[in-house]
Amino acid sequence: MGITNSNKEVSVSSISCGGSFNVRLSLTAAPDIASNPTDIVLILDRSGSMMGSPLASLKVAAKEFIDIIDESTDGSQDGQIGGGSHIGIVSFADTATQDTQLITSVADLKTAVDALTAGGNTNHADAFTKAQQLFNPASTNARVMVMFTDGVTTAGGDPSIPADAAKAQGTLIYVIGLSGNGGLDEQALRNWASDPASAFVAIAPDDAELEELFSDLAKNISKPGATNIVIDDRISDCFRITSLSSPTKGSASLLTPTTLQWKIAELGATQTEGAVLEFTVEHTGSCSGELEVNEEISYTDTEGNVVNFPSPTVEVDCGIIILPETCPDPVEIEVDGCQDALEFDAGDVELESLGCIVQLDVTIRNVCPNRRVALAVILTEVDEHGLEHKRGLKTLTIPAHNRSSCRDVTVRCIKFVLPEDLDVSGEDSAICNTRDFKARFIAHYIDNDFDCYDELF
């Protein structure tokens, strides 16, 4: 059955600037359906929320799934599921219906799919129960359920009970969810699916992606287990990998601070099995906002399985950053390998700084929306006797922000120029002495709601 599912997940949805989170890669593979007969039950949601475009897209996706299994079992789309495999259809709303038994006729399967109409509540428990009843207890075929749903349970009992019972009897459960149609309990889907859930659950943001999800699953179910797997995962330059756990299958190594490689010699060649790799990522640099964790991730194996990993995102909150002074543009200089000396005209330089430069950053806590802040920075130099000498005062107006709540505001690159002739360290050297300084910061709102006129009139 090849690679039947793949996933990439992050442990959190948001972090602070410089924060860390865990990433989990997972794969599931199973033997070839042509040489390992498999009974598959498609469990299709036809509740009221599926009315219109979602149900139409689901029908196209389900029929594409049937066609791929048809061709993979006997080498051609001849209208019959071959190799001893079967497909059955169960649909559900207020209750579940066995629309077909486990059969081989592609035409009958598609007729059952086309006959579905939307309406009613969502009874996942009855759907799992009716699907498990289709399997022949005496059959040696592998058992697979593919549950599709677009909503939470609104009728019937606890779906986990029949789902767990089915898994205990050796049934593999895949769950495809449609998240853009009125609410989906993703944790419930993970509970129903086989383990690891990250490899058996796929979420479509809209019904336009259903055909691709069903198609990829059918293609991978049709292929043999994978060998010589190589996964190269490069994360965004906004992050770096700080630790790498041992995978449950194969070996993994860190190639660069942003790139890892995971190798698996064999997965799912004789029986269905999963593999998981976890690693820790830390935010670096100045990028913030909603950031994609992936830069690039590639998969190869000997069998040519098609594997697409999702691209999770993390919201990185670095507060508000203000740069009152810009950094100078760099001048590039290149020395040839055989040159003993180099003369280089660096062009014109604006006279901005003399002597030692002290650059300060400060974060102003909890600045509320729509209020400017006055910031004063006082710098003194401390001599060998502990006395302080004035070295500068800077005042800045920090523009108001319009975020929805109070935020931290970081002010960077507050520069003071400190000529060497003001050195009070007491050391004998004319330059490069160790000098001690103290910085003081004062901040207050410019804009407030105080009104003295109320007391005068």
Could you explain the architecture of this structure?
Helix 1 (53-74) packs antiparallel against helix 2, helix 1 runs parallel beside helix 7 (210-222) and helix 3 (124-134) runs parallel beside helix 4 (160-168). This protein has helices spanning 53-74, 106-114, 124-134, 160-168, 186-192, 197-200, 210-222; strands spanning 2-10, 14-16, 20-30, 38-45, 86-92, 96-98, 142-149, 171-178, 201-204, 226-235, 239-244, 251-256, 259-267, 273-283, 289-292, 294-300, 313-317, 320-322, 356-367, 373-382, 388-398, 407-418, 436-445. The strands form 6 sheets. Strands 6-5-4-7-8-9 form a 6-stranded mixed β-sheet, sandwiched between helices. Strands 1-3-14-11 form a 4-stranded antiparallel β-sheet. Helix 4 (160-168) links the parallel strand 7 and strand 8 (171-178). The relative contact order is 0.14. The protein contains 7 helices and 23 strands. It folds into 2 domains: 2-317, von Willebrand factor, type A domain (Rossmann fold); 321-326 and 354-445, Immunoglobulin-like (Sandwich), CATH 2.60.40. It is 16% helix and 39% strand. The longest helix is centred in the first third of the chain and has 22 residues, at 53-74. With 457 residues, it is α/β, with parallel strands linked by helices.
Top CATH class of the largest domain: Alpha Beta
Number of helices: 7
Count every beta strand, where a strand is a DSSP E run of 2 or more residues: 23
Percent of residues in helices comes to 10-25%
User: Major sheet, described briefly?
Assistant: 6 strands, mixed
Q: What form results from the Cα inertia axes?
A: elongated
CATH homologous superfamily caption of the largest domain: von Willebrand factor, type A domain
Radius of gyration: 32 Å
SSE string, helices as H and strands as E: EEEEHEEHHEHEHHEHEEEEEEEEEEEEEE
Terminal CA distance: 84 Å
Number of domains: 2
Low-confidence sequence ranges: none
Strand order of the largest sheet: 6-5-4-7-8-9
Mean pLDDT: 86
Structural class: alpha/beta
- Assembly category: single chain
Using the 3D structure, state the CATH architecture of the largest domain: 3-Layer(aba) Sandwich
Look up the CATH topology of the largest domain.
Rossmann fold
